[in-house]
Amino acid sequence: MYLFVAFLVLSAGIIASGTLYYEHQKQAIKKDKQEELNVIAELKINQLTAWRKERIADTMAAYSNTMFRRSLSLFLKGNASKELRQDITSWLESQHTNYKYVQVSVFGTDEGRRLSVPEPGELLCPLVKSIISKGLSPGKITFIDFYRCTPSHPVRMGMIIMVPKDPPKDNSPLGYILLEIDPEVSVYPFVQSWPTPSRTAETYIVRREGNDVVYLNDLRQQRNTALTYRLPISQPNLPAAIAARGQEGIVEGIDYSGHAVLAALKKIPDTPWFMVAKVDQDEIYSPIRKTALMITITFSLIIITVATLIGMWYRGRQAEAYRRQLALEEDKKNLELQLIQAQKMEALGILASGIAHDFKNVLQPILINTELISDVIPQGTQEREYLDQIIDAVHLGKNLVSQIKLFSPGKKSLYKPIHIGQVVQEALTFFKRLIPPNIKLKQWVTAKDSLVRADATQIYQLVLNLCMNAIQAMGPSKGFLGVSLKEKEITENIPATVSDLKPGRYMKLTIRDTGVGINQEILDKIFDLFFTTKKEDKGTGLGLAVVYSVVKNVQGSILIRSVIGKGTRFEIFFPVHLDSLN
Fold it and tell me: Does the reported pTM lie above 0.85?
C-alpha cells in the first residue's frame, strides 16, 4: 500500500513538473515573438512615414523654385514660349523618372490636362475633382490617400499642388500639378516584405470606412484584395477591425484567413492608416510542441522506471533468467550489440543535453519525497527495502544525467589533455577482433605523446565507428583499411565538410577504405542523426552523427574524399593542446 501511494505521489510530481516547464517555455516563446512583431511593425511604420515625408519634401523643394513657378504661371495663362513649355516638360519628366511617379500632369481650372508625362493623360478622377472642389491652400501639397478611379482601375495614391494666379495678391487657382503614385512600385514592396523566413507572417495596412475595415494592399493568403476586400468593423476578434477601432498593442485573434494569430497593431502617424504585423500561432508554438514531445517521452520513461523498480519483488526470477539468457550470447554478437548501444547512448547524450538540467531538477523532488516517506517506514521491513532501492535508483539517475552532459557540446570545459595516439592505438587493438579475414588492416600511428583536449572514451568510439563503417562499405569482397595519425601544420584557411580548417597545428587522423564510396548527392546528409543507406538490421544511422558531435565539441574539422567504386577517405583534424606545442 505504501509503495502504491509513493508511486502515485512521484507520478503526480513528475507530471506537474513537466506541465510547469511546458508553460514556462510557451510563455518565453510568446514573449520573444511579441517583441519581434512590435519591432517589425515599428520598422514598417518608420519606412512608410519616411517615404511619405521624402516625397512631400522633394516635390516641395522643386516647386519652391521661383523661376519654375513664374514659368508655370505663364504656361497656364497661355503666354509660354516653346522653350518655356520644354522647361516645364523637363521638370515633369525628372519627377516621373527620379521618384517613379506613374504620371505627372499640369491641369487648368477647366480640369483638362494641359501637359502630362507620360503622354497621353486621362481625364481627372472623380475623387481628385472632389478634393479640388473643397478648396486647396496655394502652394501647399495635399496628399491623396489610396484610391481607384473605377473598380477596374489600378490602385493609386497621389499629391496635388494648387498653383495660384498672382500670390499673395490673388490666391485663386490658376491650375494644378498632380503627381500620381503606383503603390505596387513605391509602397507595397516594403510594407509586405518580412525580414526573416516564415510560413505565415505578414504585414498589411488598413483603414476604416464607415462600418467596415478596408485592406489597402494585397494579402499573403488572398490575392487582389487592395481596396476591394472589406470586413465588418464589428468583428470582435479580427486584428484589422480591432486596429481600426483604435486599439494598439499586442492582441490574439482570428485573422481574415480563419487562423488563430498573434498580431501587433499600431496607428500610422499623420494618416488614417493602421499597421498590422501578424503571424499564425500554429507557427509560433511549433517548436515548443516538439520539446513537449521529448519531455513527455522522458517523463514517461521515468515513471516506467519507477514502476519497474516497485514491481521487481515479484519479477526477480524472470529478470534473473533474462540476465542468464543474455550472458549465453556469443562473443561477436555481444561486441556488435555493445557497439550499437554505445552509438545509441552517444546520440541520447546529444539529444538529451538540452533537457538534462531539467531532468536533474525533476529527480530532486523524487529523492526528497522518497526520503520523507522512508523516515516513517521502520528499518528492516520489505517496504523500507523497496524505498531504499528507489533512492539508490534516483542517485543512479543523477549520475546518468552527469554522464549524458559529458556528450553535450556545452561541456567542452570538462575535457582534459589526452595522448590521442595511445587512445587510437587502444581502439585499433580492440577493433582487430572484429575484422573479417577478407579485409587487410594497415596502420601508421605516430606522435603518440602529442596531446589534444578531448574525452578519451569519445575518441575511442569515433575510431570504432569510422572503422566499422569502412568494413561494412567493403562488404564480403577483398578490401584494404588504412588508419594513420600524425601531426599536421595548416597555414591557411581550408574549407571542410565539418568546420572549416583554420591555420594552426593539428593531429590528423586518416581512415580510408576501398569500399563502394559515397554518392555526392547524399554527402551533405551523412552526419544527420538516424540517416543511413543500410538495411534496417544493418545500421542505426547514429555512427557518423556521433563522429560529427565529438569533432565539433573539440573544435576540430572533418574532410571527406570519396569516389564511387574506389573508396572513401575521412580526414579528421584535432587541435594540438598547448602543452604539446611547448
Answer: no
**Does 540 have pLDDT greater than 80?**
no
Q: Which domains does the chain have, with CATH numbers?
A: 2-27+286-408 (no CATH), 65-186 (3.30.450.20), 414-581 (3.30.565.10)
Mind spelling out the 3-state secondary structure of 64-112? CCHHHHHHHHHHHCCCCCHHHHHHHHHHHHHHHHHCCEEEEEEEECCCC
- Would you state the cell numbers that stand for residue 164, as one nine-digit string? 495660384
Phi first, then psi: what are they for 448, rounded to 5°? Answer: -70, -15
Q: Which helix (H) or strand (E) holds 400?
A: helix 382-406
Report H helices in 79-201. Answer: 82-98, 126-133, 183-186, 188-192
Q: Is the pLDDT of residue 574 over 90?
A: yes
185: amino acid identity, one letter: V
- In the predicted model, what is the mean pLDDT of residues 205-228? 93
**Do residues 288 and 22 touch, judged by C-beta distance below 8 A?**
yes
φ and ψ at residue 578, rounded to 5 degrees: -60, -40
Question: Hey, how many other C-beta atoms are within 10 angstroms of the C-beta on 129?
Answer: 11
Q: One-letter amino acid identity for 218? A: D
Hey, what's the cell of 298? Answer: 522522458
Q: Tell me what percent of the chain is helix, strand and coil, each rounded to the nearest 5.
A: 50, 25, 25
Distances (CA, A) of 138 to 29, 69, 135, 163, 512: 54, 12, 9, 6, 84
pLDDT tens column, 464-517: 889 998 998 898 889 999 999 999 998 888 888 777 888 999 999 999 999 999
